[in-house]
Design goal:
- This protein has 9 helices and 18 strands.
- A 7-stranded mixed β-sheet has the order 6-7-5-15-16-17-14. It has a 4-stranded parallel β-sheet with strand order 9-2-1-12, covered by helices on one side.
- β1, α4 and β2 form a beta-alpha-beta unit.
- α4 runs parallel beside α8.
- The chain is globular, with a radius of gyration of 21 Å.
- It starts with 7 loop residues before the first helix and ends in a 46-residue tail after the last strand.
- It binds flavin-adenine dinucleotide.
- The site of flavin-adenine dinucleotide (FAD) has 32 residues, from α4, β2 and β3.
Length: 359
């Protein structure tokens, strides 16, 4: 937030698409940095996927950036602090899905670029291009619209026959499946490690990182220049970016009734010892009504991942609260909960009023 409100489009350009151009050396500093309208001293609150990348990209175009997080980048309570997250561009069920689709495609390329630059020095690959299959009994509007947008945007995809799927990935049970869409460029990101890595690179390149909790400003009391931490320290800047994810409603009273924070449930299952069918690259990520999932990733192999849908509006714990909102536990040991078939997956029985965002 700024006393001179940023042009939202301009900010999104910087935080998102603009950085690619900067990295490739063809961008100029955006107006709000050049003109001093917002100033170049920026505080980003929240070091999750959104805050971390925003801080890094702003710094790379010349801003002086401080990144503040109450628990640290990749922490267990944050949404980005789970083991893995899928990146796919199939959003035919969303009103603005075509935009999401393009953003997701940029994200895939960004993660590839990240690995090309950092996998070796950091000795850690973060993006695993598993491909993604959508399994359905018929051509639902979601599939039809996704396919139409893929065609319009020249995005690589395949319509697979059930026989083809059975041949390529015999570990799937294909009962009731008649239609399959495949996006070969989709993949899986090591979320927690990537979030930590982005923050580390930000620091390495000169960024300032503070572990501390910004006290949510009293309604109407935020002057746009200074925030206070719970230890009493104050931080001043010309521009503030609050990238506090599901805490947004708790941070600004104004947002309380404007955002929804559905709870998702993620399970990581142990697979049979020596059985590589459920490990990258031997199976794609998948989307079946009500659940999504993907293979375990080498070499730590935290398990075969299954996600159920969200339910209800759940506020994240306060700073001193307990539960993390990512169920990152592996409920079975290496020999238990072996997943023999990847559809009707064994997830917790959750009611999902809005099944689309499972990812
Ligand atoms: C179970 C589940 C599965 C999901 N699966 C997918 C998927 O497969 N693919 C996909 O694209 N998306 C998926 N999502 C969504 C995705 O994880 C989120 O959109 C993304 O991680 C949000 O990142 P963020 O940076 O906005 O928030 P977060 O990662 O939650 O980061 C917010 C940060 O703000 C900090 N913070 C909050 N308040 C303060 C304060 N007052 N002072 C200082 N710091 C503060 C927190 O400590 C935290 O680190 C899933 C979400 C869930 C819950």
């Amino acid at each position: 937030m700024s006393t001179h409100p940023l042009d939202r489009r301009e900010f999104l350009k910087v935080a998102g698409v603009g950085a690619g151009a900067v990295l490739s050396g063809c961008a100029t500093a955006p107006g709000f940095l050049r003109s001093g309208r917002g100033g170049s001293n920026i505080v980003v609150v929240g070091a999750g996927a959104f805050g971390g990348w925003t801080a890094l990209n702003l710094q790379r175009i010349g801003a002086r950036v401080t990144l503040v997080d109450m628990f640290g980048p990749g922490n267990s309570r944050s949404t980005s602090g789970d083991e893995t997250r899928g990146v796919r561009s199939s959003y035919g069920d969303r009103p603005h899905g075509e935009l999401w689709m393009r953003w997701a495609r940029v994200a895939m390329q960004r993660w590839r670029d990240w690995d090309a630059e950092y996998a070796k020095p950091l000795k850690m690959q973060v993006f695993f291009p598993s491909g993604d299959i959508i399994l359905r009994s018929d051509w639902e509007p979601f599939l039809k619209q996704t396919k139409a947008w893929w065609e319009k945007n020249a995005i690589r995809h395949e319509v697979l026959s059930v026989e083809e799927v059975a041949k390529r990935w015999p570990q799937f049970s294909l009962k009731d499946v008649n239609v399959v869409l495949y996006e070969p460029d989709a993949g899986i990101v090591r979320a927690r490690r990537a979030t930590e890595a982005v923050a580390e690179v930000f620091r390495y390149e000169g960024g300032r990182m503070i572990i501390g909790r910004v006290v949510p400003p009293e309604p109407g009391a935020f002057d746009g220049h200074t925030v206070t931490l719970t230890n009493g320290d104050t931080i001043s800047a010309d521009t503030f970016v609050f990238a506090v994810g599901p805490w947004l409603g708790k941070t600004f009273a104004l947002m309380q009734n404007r955002i929804r924070t559905p709870l998702g449930t993620v399970f990581y299952y142990g697979t049979p010892i020596g059985d590589q069918r459920f490990t990258f690259p031997n199976m794609p990520s998948w989307n079946y009504p009500g659940t999504t999932g993907w293979p375990g990733l080498p070499v730590d192999n935290r398990g075969f991942r299954v996600r159920g849908g969200g339910g209800g509006g759940v506020q994240p714990a306060a700073a001193n609260g307990a539960a993390a909102n990512n169920a990152g536990a592996n409920p079975g040991g290496a020999d238990s909960a072996a997943t023999r078939s990847a559809t009707p997956a064994p997830t917790q029985n959750v009611t999902d009023p809005d099944p689309a965002p499972v990812g």
